[in-house]
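Would you kindly consider the sequence and fold I have copied below?
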Amino acid sequence: MMSKKKNVSTEAATTGTKTRKQAPSKSRTKLAQLEAMLRRPVGATVEQISKSLDWQTHSVRGAMSGALKKKQGLIITSEKTDDGRRVYRIAG
């Protein structure tokens, strides 16, 4: 026997009861927050960004490389501090 598939109308799918609500403090996207952190004069470390955005460190590096450098064409510099940590900044 073949079972019938339920047809779900587009309207029913888009007006579902589950909706995402943004907290007032998170009005900007995470990529915008990442860019803002890198535009600060002091820059930001991967650890600072990871903690602030609640991302894993490999996700931070991937977002910098893919979304900011490759897609947006931004130049991201890194500088090693005296304590051995890397600080990333958007050049210019």
Observations:
- The chain has a mean pLDDT of 84.
